[in-house]
Amino acid sequence: MASISDTYLQLADGNKIPQEGFGTYKVTDPSEMETAIQTAYDTGYRLFDTAQMYNNEEMIGSALRSLNVARDKYFVTTKIAESNQGFQPAIDSLKDSLKRLGMDYVDLILVHWPVHNKFFDTWRAFEELKKEGLTRSIGVSNYTMAHLELLKTQANEMPVLDQIELTPQMQQAPMRRFGQENGIVMQAWAPLARGQMMDNPVLKEIAANHDKTVAQVILRWQLQVGNSFIPKSVHVARIKQNADIFDFELTADEMKKIATLDHYKRVSQEPELVYENDKQYPHHFKN
Known about the structure:
By secondary structure, the protein is α/β, with parallel strands linked by helices. It has one domain (4-276): NADP-dependent oxidoreductase domain (TIM Barrel), CATH 3.20.20. The protein is 40% helix and 15% strand. The strands form two sheets. Strands 3-4-5-6-7-8-9-10 form an eight-stranded parallel beta sheet. Strands 1-2 form a two-stranded antiparallel ribbon. The chain is globular and about 55 Å long.
C-alpha cells in the first residue's frame, strides 16, 4: 500500500516532489515547531513548506537539523515575499533565507504573490538562482492562468509548480487542466479551506461511509485529483491523521458529489488585485 513517504509527483525539470507535505504558516513558537516537525517526519512527511512572510525560517531550519537525518532526505520550499521581489533583491533575499534555514540550497523557491512592477525581474532572478545551485527547482504561488501566460512571453524556463488556493469550494478545474497541459504541478495551500467545510453535509456523509474525518476526505480528494497539498497542524494527532489517507479511496460517485461543492469561494486574497496593487491588500474573509 502506498504511503505519504513514497508518493511523489514528477516535476517538469526532472526533480520530484512529495505529493503531500507539511505547511508551517503561523507556526511561530520554536518548541511547537520542533515537536510538529519531529512528529511530521516520523509520520512520513518529507516536504516542509515555509516562506519569508511566515517569519519562521530559522525555526524550521533548526527543527529539521534536530532530526539528525541527511539533507537529501527531505524537501524544503520557501517563498520570496513581495517586498523582496526584483532581480537583485530576490537573489539577496534567498541568500538571507538560506542563512536563516542553515542550508546550502532549497529544493524549491516560489514567488509568493505576483506583483506587476517586479514581475519579470523576479523571474529572471529565479532562473539565475537555479543556475547558481541555490535552489533545485523554481515555481510560483498564487499565479492565475493569465499570469502564467504573461510569464511565458519572457521566461527561459517556466515554473514547475504553482501553489494556489485549491479546495472543494474552490476547485479551479481550468487551472488544473492548464497545469496538466503545460507541465506545471498545482499545489494546494490551506487545502482544508481553513476549516470552513468541516460541517458540510456532503463531506460528512462521505466521511461516515469510510469511517474517516471530513479533513481526511478533503485530503483524499486532493490526492485523487492529482494536486500536491500541504496541510498544516501543530497537534500531534491531527498531523498523523492528515497523513492517514492512503488506506481508502473515494468512489467515482463520491468524487462527482464533491465536484458539486465548487462555489468559487476563496478564503484569502484575489491574486489579480495583489498583482495590481503590488502588495497584499486589506482583506477580511467571511465564513
